[in-house]
Fold this protein.
Amino acid sequence: MAGCAGASCVKPLDTGEAAFKLAVLLHDPPWKPWGGNLGPYRLEGCSGKLDVCIAERLARLSDERLHSNLESLFGEDALKELANADAIKKLAEAIRRAAERWLREKQGAVAARRSHERQVHLLLNVLTDVLRDMGLGAYAGVAERAADALIRDSRVEEADRLASSMDRAYLAMVYGGEGGDDKVQASRPVYVNPFNPLMRAEQAPKLSVEKVADYIAVLVSTLALLLEKSDKRSASPPVLLYSLAYSLLEPLWYRVVGVGYVPVADTRVPHHTVFDHIAASAMASNWLLEGSGPRGCLAIVDLKSVQAWISEARRLRDIWAASWLASLLAWKTVEPLVEALGPDVLIQPPARLHPFYAARLLSRLGCRGTGESRCMALARLLGLPHGWPIDPTVPTTVRLALPARACRVLREAAEEAYWEAWSKITESLANYIREAMEWSLDVIAACEERREDCPEALHRRLEQAGPPPGYSRASTLPRDTASAPPSSGPASWPASYGV
């Protein structure tokens, strides 16, 4: 596909594909270890079917409880920007109606399914009804089809099996035997921050059904409120809903339920969580988009000569700037693929807490700067405490799991995206340098005429000019040039390996 431009090289997810991936993402809920009585874990407050208990709690959700949970998550000022008191009351009422409808009309249809599947079916139906009540029909259609895919699409279980096979293979390598030794367990793990051992959390063996209901209510409400505020022109509804759910599932769990509730996927490996498993399953779903059976490629995108480029720096700030530009270029090279297919195409580095991906998602949600309280609250939730990607931590070798249609245009998409990003950076910096030189000449002429201290006047004028343009400005300027990166030449373009 010669001459394609960025995201146009790859066909974006349609509603059915996004619904399938959303079903894969949610097929195991975060509370599954407690709801499934895994090892020492137990869920309290329910004597019957867990899906029914959760639905009954949601049907009794109070306006005040939802408001309190959302305020604890976002803060008072940010919540006011997202929704007023009347809007939150309408949200709570929509959740209550959706839960009652599921109990009345939908619960019987999935009664024969496994318990955790019924619980996810409930979550997706509540999300569908709430989005529809808020006039977000395009997003509601994705959630509705995801609920159907969860029950009827065999590829959901196939993606789960692919990811689970990897888990079992690794366990066998560590513990021996097929799938590992069941006698090796960590029943009460303690999680410690290696950079500050004083920050620790002991795993909680018991979880209340009230916390599960709170999490579902906050997740559904947050998705609905953010999608309502999103930039409708910047992304297709199927991709945006899936991307937002992928990014918020984990941070919302720890903020709403607590850091002591780590959802272990296997008690033998307490640092391997349900979030790790569903991320692996979502990654595998890319190889199942075009039918049953893995089809696609494992791709590697590598920028060459980066170390030589960075080594030219002579000061710490130069090292930071060179590293940041390398991280930015690595991200921008694969950004069209992520935009079209979703964040789960990224294997390494993953999209979870990816600073540049988080910044891009914020822009999709209408956050173009850091002035709004809701934007800063969401940025912190996504791992951007400063509101933009300040740390150059993204490696310049990127591994991706791509469906077959993306593999066919991989070279063109990556090459076009790379040169477009580099051209925008060089044009932006060239404009800044040109303006600074013009200002400098004006200041020097004026201070010589008035016999002032030229260096001091020039220093004041440059301070007024501000810093060079950052990531957001560089990503919005038009492309006029195609300069090569210093000392690096073009990127080493992707090599694809069939699955």
